[in-house]
Design brief:
The longest helix is centred in the N-terminal third of the chain and has 26 residues. By secondary structure, this protein is mainly α. The chain is extended. The protein has a domain of about 50 residues. It is built from 4 helices and no strands.
Length: about 130
């Protein structure tokens, strides 16, 4: 029985490590493009759109940004705007027209206090220093 429990615990740990690394790869995918740019800068410069205009000092960064944008478009979920219909409250509850509906409207007097209201300082205060 101990061997089965050990094996289950081992499988859970291996699964957690694999999922953690998958999360890291997804979270830092743009960083991999930057590392690729750093290590293969000459190839990026050779494919650069602005290589005929050296005064821009692009050095292949345009290609890097293009690849990052393509990856973002591929990763972004497609946002389809559904046709929105107005919601009517009449369809969500049953209305019995035989029961008269009365509304009670209570009138509250306007506030006449012109000075600040005393607050309960026993509750609202900065935390005390315990050191």
């Amino acid at each position: 029985m101990d061997g089965v429990a050990y094996l289950c615990g081992l499988v859970q740990k291996v699964t957690a490590v694999i999922l953690f690394f998958i999360f890291l790869l997804q979270a830092f995918s743009q960083g991999f493009y930057c590392l690729d740019y750093i290590f293969r800068k000459k190839a990026y410069i050779a494919q650069c759109v602005n290589r005929n205009r050296p005064m821009l000092h692009c050095d292949g960064k345009c290609l890097l940004m293009q690849r990052i944008r393509e990856q973002e478009k591929k990763d972004a979920p497609e946002m389809k705007i559904a046709k929105q219909e107005p919601v009517s409250l009449q369809h969500h509850y049953i209305v019995d027209s035989s029961v008269p509906v009365t509304y009670h409207r209570e009138a509250y007097p306007p506030a006449t206090i012109q000075s600040p209201v005393k607050r309960s300082y026993a509750i609202f205060h900065p935390p005390c220093n315990l050191s």
